[in-house]
Amino acid sequence: MTKISPEFEVKMEEEDILEVSADVSFSSNRFPKYKLGADNQILEEPKEDNQGPSLKEVVEQESANLSEQHKRLSVRDLASKFDKNLTAAAKLSDEAKLREVASLEGHVLLKKLRDALEFLKGRLAGRNKEDVEKAISMVEALAVKLTQKEGELIQEKFEVKKLANFLKQASEDAKKLVSQEKSFACAEIESARAVVLRIGQALEEQENDSQASKKQDVEELVEEVQEARRIKLLHQPSKVMDMEHELRALRNQIREKSMFSIKLQKELAMSKRDEENKYRIYALEGSENLGSYLRIQPCSDKAPLLSKSLIQWYRLSSEGSWKEVISGANKSIYAPEPFDVGRTLQAEIVSNGQKLTVTTTGPIDPAAGLGSYVETLLRKSNTEFNVVISQMNGQDHASHSVHVFHVGKMRIKLCRGWITKARENYSSSMQLCGVRGDGNNAAKALFWQARKGLSFVLTFESERDRNAAIMLARKYALDCNVMLAGPDDQV
């Protein structure tokens, strides 16, 4: 059932109601709708938002767009974008100021409305008074909510101001950067223009110089051609050909005379040596050049046996002023090695307290073609020779299998297939020289002491390979500051 209360009408005097100021402007011509919830909490009815996103959302969206486009925008575009955003921030700031004015007007209106309700509350009683009290509480709740809205508005205003300052500073920085880049670009353009100008001047000068030099060369060539024509006209072609034939014949005669002279000198030396050998007990036999061997032969039946005599070979200087002992050369056979080229060799025979000497007729001659062969081998990093081990540590080697003798720039190695007999770097303890006495194979044999306590006598396939191996090893050892020489004593 519905309780019907008697209607009553309260007349209010016009002078008792406070008038609203005419300066206040309202955004709407109706009062907002509210309703009470639990515990008398004022709930605002949802309303449609026809004004688009909030200021905070706009600021966040613009910041995100700026962050995404920062890397791919050029300096000029970035400056333009900053200017646009700065304008938008200024517009947002103006809108915030308008909202602040509207909020102030709302506070004034709520204050006047509350005063009016308080005035009504004093004149009403009963249920109407309770309704007025409820209305007053709703007005107070609206004032609180309006205060909260003002706080949010102040925060948004602060953020907008901060964003505006940031955009303003970024715009100024972008303008400075654009100006700086523009100055740099102008400087580079001027520098490039100056370089191009200098290059053009240099090319022009070079072209002028080349034309002048070409002209001078052509003039000199013309003069030479004219001089050649003049000389050709002065001399008859037949006389020139006769002179060339005469010169060629004279060169052939000189060559034949020199060869004949060398042959006569050798025959004279041999006849002189044969004549001297008539009165000598011993003589040297063999070619006096690298790649052969020399043998001491008795010239008389009264000559003491060489096996019972002491023999020592020496190297003499070209003038014969000094002589050098060849260590280990104490046999009747000696094969010259590369150290002996250009030196005279002498052998001393001591028997029964009597000392006899035999000497080569002249210096030892080099082997034909050995120098070019060694030069070819030096172009390789490693040279291999086929050898046979004749002796090992002073003892005869039973096996006569073929081994490979490697002569490298840093070491020497002796191996057979995968088996390595010795592999040593060049050092002061290493010795290498020709064998000092080994019968008819002395010219092909080589003595190599890899280290103390390990030595070999190796026989090569030819005299050229043996001498080339000695020369290569000594050259590489000298590059390592090592001097390879013969042994102090060899049995």
From TrEMBL:
Residue intervals of the Stomatal closure-related actin-binding protein coiled-coil domain: 101-268
GO molecular function: actin binding
UniProt xrefs under Gene3D superfamilies: 2.30.29.140, 2.60.40.2700, ATP synthase delta/epsilon subunit, C-terminal domain
Domain Stomatal closure-related actin-binding protein PH per the UniProt entry, residue ranges: 382-489
Region (Disordered): 37-58
Domain named Stomatal closure-related actin-binding protein Ig: residues: 282-379
Name used for this protein in its record: Stomatal closure-related actin-binding protein 3-like
Provenance organism: Juglans regia
Lineage of origin: Eukaryota, Viridiplantae, Streptophyta, Embryophyta, Tracheophyta
